Amino acid sequence: MKKLTPFLAIVALATAFASHSVWAQQDDHSMNPQHGGVVVEASHVQFELVSGSDGVQLFARDHGKPVDMSKATGKLTMLLNNKDKLDVELTGQAESLIGKLPAPVEKEYVALAFVKMPSGKNITVRFQSK
Length: 130
Fold this sequence. Notes:
With 130 residues, this protein is α+β, with helices and mostly antiparallel strands. The chain is 19% helix and 45% strand.
């Protein structure tokens, strides 16, 4: 019985650590919008596309932490109601890529973002409005 007690303690401790790491990983890859947009994960990075009255913003989080997008670039192609196409150049700011729209997006859309990350990695992200 004395040999069994340390073994059970080790198993209990290992189980506690394993369950903690599972919960921590779920927090790192949260798909909840932080800016009111549409969130998609691509290449282990969470992207959030926010369309406003005069433009779009594309935010990125890596393991729950904001990515400095000041040196990132990109292009966004939006298909509105499956017929009208918009191409928007995206330029980097501190926390997001921004682009100007000719008019507010009030329709359903599908968007493809082609992003060159500050690391030089190219990532393609597909968004669909709700």
